[in-house]
Design goal:
With 156 residues, the protein is α+β, with helices and mostly antiparallel strands. The chain has four helices and seven strands.
Length: 156
């Protein structure tokens, strides 16, 4: 688990919705100028070009991760809320009852629709060794019938 006292996570809305001259959109862009992800330029491009627009349109929200000791931007992640649909025919009656607590049931199509958080973007800053300040963590997940492992910050 990440040590929460080593990092500060800031919602970019704090920059975008501020009248404070030390914040604001121009200050946000200044902060981003120190971000580089040569391993995946799409990650860098999203942060610089799309994160503001998507946040303003409420399509997603981006969070910047700073190392507290140096206040260096070490990474970011973007969350989006997406609909998740489950076909009723694929689950047991017990699961259907549980789904009704957190979803809407469409009787006509026999589907359950709920909201789910999606990690839409994940990026690590490789400028001046900032990537070393954010440790890699290993996680596992099921994909079909096979257990897969991935390292959350290794290739971000």
């Amino acid at each position: 688990m990440l040590e929460t006292n080593r990092y500060s996570v800031i919602n970019i809305r704090r920059y975008l919705n501020s009248d404070n001259p030390k914040l604001g959109e121009s200050r946000f862009l200044q902060v981003l100028s120190g971000f580089s992800c040569l391993r995946n330029t799409d990650v860098e491009r999203f942060l610089e070009k799309s994160s503001i627009e998507f946040t303003k349109k409420n399509q997603s929200v981006t969070y910047l991760v700073f190392d507290i000791s140096s206040m260096v931007l070490v990474g970011y992640f973007t969350l989006a809320l997406k609909p998740l649909t489950v076909r009723g025919e694929t689950v047991s009656n017990t699961v259907k009852k549980k789904l009704l607590r957190v979803s809407e049931w469409d009787e006509k199509s026999d589907t359950y629709t709920m909201s789910a958080y999606l990690i839409a973007q994940l990026g690590k800053n490789f400028t001046n060794g900032a990537d070393k300040k954010l440790p890699a963590k290993n996680y596992s997940y099921w994909h079909g019938t096979k257990l897969k492992r991935y390292n959350i910050w290794a290739e971000a």
